[in-house]
């Protein structure tokens, strides 16, 4: 199992570089092939993981992945149709719908919707066990122990 870790300090939290970094991490975790892959992006809510509420990290990452040919499902507690770039990504009704049959999961912000995401539950929904966590919200050791390839900043 391949393991990658980035330090949160390596990401520019307000710049375009962060969006590029997340897309690169996801593509690398998928062996460089994004086209035709289903990717769930969690944390597409307004105001999370970005100082620019009009362009949250999750939505920007989803748009960029879709531009590379990925089938992207976004979920966030405050996702609405105009804000998701509806022509570029599908806004999932709930987290399970976003995860269903995903080849990879990208967590850009934790929405704290009252239901923690366990690697076991997610594993029952996805096709591939790849998680790119740039939110730092997931327990990397627990996800790895559950058989996931964990890429990102989560380490607690």
Write the layout of secondary structure elements.
Layout: E1 4-5, H1 16-29, E2 38-42, H2 57-67, E3 71-75, E4 90-91, H3 95-99, E5 104-107, H4 119-123, E6 130-133, H5 140-145, E7 149-152
Parallel strand pairs: 1-7, 2-3, 2-5, 3-4, 5-6, 6-7
Helix pairs in contact: 1-2
Structural features, described:
- By secondary structure, the protein is an alpha/beta fold.
- The protein is 26% helix and 17% strand.
- It has helices spanning 16-29, 57-67, 95-99, 119-123, 140-145; strands spanning 4-5, 38-42, 71-75, 90-91, 104-107, 130-133, 149-152.
- A seven-stranded parallel beta sheet has the order 1-7-6-5-2-3-4.
- α1 (16-29) crosses α2.
- The protein is globular.
- It starts with a strand and ends with a strand.
- Residues 46-53 and 79-88 have low confidence and may be disordered.
């Amino acid at each position: 199992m391949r393991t990658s870790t980035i330090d949160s300090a390596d990401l520019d939290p307000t710049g375009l570089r962060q969006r590029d970094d997340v897309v690169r991490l996801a593509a690398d975790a998928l062996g460089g092939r994004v086209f035709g892959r289903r990717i769930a992006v969690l944390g597409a809510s307004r105001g999370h993981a970005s100082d620019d509420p009009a362009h949250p990290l999750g939505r920007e990452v989803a748009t960029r992945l879709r531009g590379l040919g990925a089938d992207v499902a976004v979920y966030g507690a405050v996702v609405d149709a105009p804000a998701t770039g509806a022509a570029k990504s599908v806004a999932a009704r709930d987290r399970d719908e976003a995860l269903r049959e995903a080849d990879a999961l990208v967590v850009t912000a934790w929405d704290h919707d009252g239901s923690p995401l366990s690697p076991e539950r997610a594993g029952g929904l996805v096709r591939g066990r790849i998680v790119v966590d740039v939110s730092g919200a997931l327990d990397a050791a627990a996800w790895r122990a559950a058989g996931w390839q964990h890429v990102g900043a989560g380490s607690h």
